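ok so i was messing around last nite and threw this chain in just to see what happens. nothing serious, just curious
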Amino acid sequence: MLMKSKPSPPSNPPRRLPLLKNFDEAAALADKQKDPFYLAAFLIQCWLGGLLQRAAAEYAENKNPRDRSLQRGEAWRALLELFGRTMRKGHRYLLACLLRFSASDVSPRNSLRRALVPLSIEHRCAGDFFGPRNRPGAQLPVQNDELARRTILRWCDWLDATIHLGTHRRWHLTPACFHPDPEQRHLAALGNAQRDFASLDAPARAAWLMDFAAAAQRFQDSDKWAALGQAMSDNSDRLWIYPEVDTFVIALWPLVRAHNWTYRDLLNVIRPALQRPQAYPCECEQSFSTYCINVLGLRKTGKGASAKNGRPSGYEVAVRYCPALKGRNGP
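result:
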């Protein structure tokens, strides 16, 4: 339903990012290669891992979706905490590191790389961020840095949506991974990943083996260890009733926030892609807004004016990112 294409690879692809087990290993590699990027890459890995854990905790520990805090700037706030000193010196270097990380880690697990797809589409439509339409050399350094800051900030919005959607999908398909106890969640995630071990790439397998060995040593005498085996054989019986609606709403929420779409705007945008566009929860704006808040945990802030033609600002980005929005029979 969402655009699956990857960002265009650079003419000279960077080296594939090796598995960085800890900061000391990253520091040793940076020293050996005389390249500080590997230190930044390790911190980026920690940042992304923390965001995934936080999103899982929101679902596991807040059974009522209204109590969850999702797509409210989590990625940007966490990035500021981790790279605060670096960003005070300027944003261009950090943006270069994020782009290089996305290019050098091509695994499907790289949520930052996946979030780069809608950001690239948004740039091609509006030219608001770093990309082909911008010529940094023709601008003042201060303007360059502000453009880099806005690019990172917007990338974080799309990253929040990407992580939210992945977490929401796992909530239905792998419920064992959402135990209220964070340690059992971790073990269940290891067990669930083992089911697809054969299809993982080499770095992912190495990471899994490292995590498994550490968990085995830590929980060898704990009753919690059973959570890993249970997840390996878990077959979800949690019914996912509206996967289409959920996917489009969660994936497009950054456009709702950026352009102050109304619930009616969002409803008008996604309806052409739905098999039952007039059925619950999309039969009317009131039902739809209630569903977004009470089921998906997404609440609008501020009031807006609905587009009269059903195509609010940002519509072009939406249909390029989700081609199905053009309608099942084409535009």
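not much to say yet. Residues 141-173 form the longest helix (33 residues).
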